Amino acid sequence: MRPASATATLARYWIPERSFLSDLGLVVGFSLFTGLMAHVAIPLPFTPVPITGQTFAVLLCGALLGSRLGTASMLLYITEGMVGLPVFAVAPANAATYGYLAGFVAAAFVVGWFADMGWTKDLPRTVVAMIAGEAAIYFFGLLWLAHFVPESKVLDFGLFPFLIGDAIKLAAAAVVVPAGWRLSRNR
User: Reduced to 3 states, what is the DSSP secondary structure of residue 52?
Assistant: First the structure.
């Protein structure tokens, strides 16, 4: 195996011999992991957007796979849901949440870009990368949600109820990735 300093993402460290099949396996695996985490969901009675484990999976996806494979994985995840596979959140899928799905693609790219630059090897920079990913999710999610709820309620329905949960998911994801690098270096 290559030294950890020779590669930017953990996926490339653990699977250094890049091939179509290895890339496909990572993309499919993370799309399915995101679908699994979507079923960790808490519907809220006052908003069409549930609390889910998806954002945890999206942040990990970008951090572990990088921008190219992370983006491909989220595009595949959305495609799986659009063709009817049960990968979206347990709460009824509705058009108000589509912006968040677009945000998943953007977040995987943004976090992946930081990972490609080597930013996910230590906790502080990983946190910065993941905050940028969360911002991308909220940007697209809130922009789209504004088409379905009164403008004065967009932040009440689409941001404020999720900040604490997303901070917890971000912290968990941000700890996992640098810990993976430490374990890799100790092998």
Answer: strand
Structure tokens belonging to residue 80: 């799986």
Does the 4-186 domain belong in CATH 3.40.1380.20? Answer: no
Cβ atoms 59, 173 nearer than 8 A = yes
Residue 84 token pair: 């009817």
pLDDT band at 7 (very low <50, low <70, confident <90, very high): low
Chain position carrying tokens 């796979």: 65
Res 5 pLDDT > 60:
no
**3 — pLDDT class (breaks 50, 70, 90):** very low
- The neighbour count for residue 66, using CB atoms within 10 Å, is 27
Contact 114, 125 (CB under 8 A): yes
Q: Spell out the domain ranges in the chain.
A: 4-186
Quote the strand ranges of 10-144, DSSP E: 41-42, 51-52
Token duo for residue 70: 């992370």
Which sign does the torsion angle of CA 68, 79, 145, 52 carry? negative
CA nearest to 100, candidates 159, 45, 24: 159
Closest CA to 70 of 18, 113, 37: 113
Are 1 and 47 within 8 A, CB to CB? no
Residues 161-174 have pLDDT tens digits of 899 889 999 999 99
Region 111-134 average pLDDT: 95
Chain-wide mean pLDDT for the chain?
Answer: 90
